[in-house]
Amino acid sequence: MSALLPVLTPSADPSRAASDEAVWGPKLERLRAVFRRPGRWVVCLSGGVDSALVLAVAAQERGRDVVALTAVSPTLPEPERLTCVRLAQEAAVRHELAESEEMDREAFVSNGSDRCYHCKTELYSVARDRARELGTDWIADGVNVDDLGDHRPGLVAAREHDVIHPLIEAGMSKADVRGAARGLGLGVWDKPAFACLSSRFPYGTRITEEKLTQVGAVELFLKARGIRQVRVRSDGRTARIEVLPSDIARLAAEPLRGDIVKVATDAGFLWVSLDLQGYRTGSMNAGLVE
Q1: Bigger pLDDT: 136 vs 247
Q2: Residue burial 184-210, b: 16+ Cβ < 10 Å; e: rest
Q3: Which of 61, 63, 68, 153: disulfide with 117, CB 3.0–4.6 Å?
Q4: What CATH number does the domain containing 226 carry?
Q5: Strands 238-243 and 230-234: what pairing?
């Protein structure tokens, strides 16, 4: 079994984990120092707390020298896109929504274990083109030090496109990021982790817009019912729902159980299941071997 695989145990609510200022304060200063390098910056903004913190600090240090870039495709739900728009407005920086064409890449839609590499290659190619137009070499993303222990082919694409990881340079973990974001007053400081919808399918299961729409519809319904941390994993026929262990009983009880079944079957699923292990990051990596 690969050493890069995550520990697949039920997770505590990740939205509440944050370090205190004595821990994240010095690291935040190191993060600020990253953006004191002269020149303009392109910050890849996904809507999560990591890239939100990077953008906020970049904007504070560089002002109009910062451009936020969000890749838009069927893998990005509309609420996430709107969150990106709001974050860029709050940071008072220019925001560009770039159409991503990863769905045109056979290596992406065939969904091998290197899928994320091809997705990020598309994103960073767009970002690199924009950086050239701005006359700068600086492209930043929101990877933190905790991300280095998982299966992350996208990091290879980042290296190939000379993308900078400011949070890693600052030594910031996810808890540090949440603590600093809360200290800076960012409303997304406790936003649950989110990965693009393509991560919902077992490797080897072909990704289509129809399948992305299916899982997105069920996740959107559950979030509207107050389920903050949710993943709908699918092979295209079955919806396997992961939520925090504390939410499992609620989903299994009426009337929500029946409502979920209706929404899922209306979306096109044949079967609906509730994963008793609960939500865990990267659960689709469980089948990977060296």
Answers
A1: 247
A2: eebebbbbbebebbbbbbeeeeebeee
A3: 153
A4: 3.30.70
A5: antiparallel
Largest CA distance in the chain: 58
The residues with which 94 forms a beta bridge, in sequence order, are 67
Helices (H), the chain: 21-34, 49-62, 78-91, 106-109, 115-134, 154-160, 166-169, 174-183, 209-224, 245-252, 256-267
At residue 105, what is the residue type? R
Structure tokens at 150: 């998982």
Domain span at 152: 19-183
Distance of alpha carbon 134 from alpha carbon 63, whole angstroms: 15
Tell me, yes or no, whether 4 lies in a domain: no
| Contact assessment for residue 142 and residue 51, using Cβ atoms and an 8 Å cutoff | yes
Final residue before a domain boundary, out of 183, 208, 228: 183
Regarding whether 251 and 156 lie in a shared domain, the answer is no
Nearest residue to 45 (alpha-carbon basis) of 74, 68, 65, 62 = 68
pLDDT tens readout for residues 181-224: 999 999 999 999 898 999 999 999 999 999 999 999 999 999 99
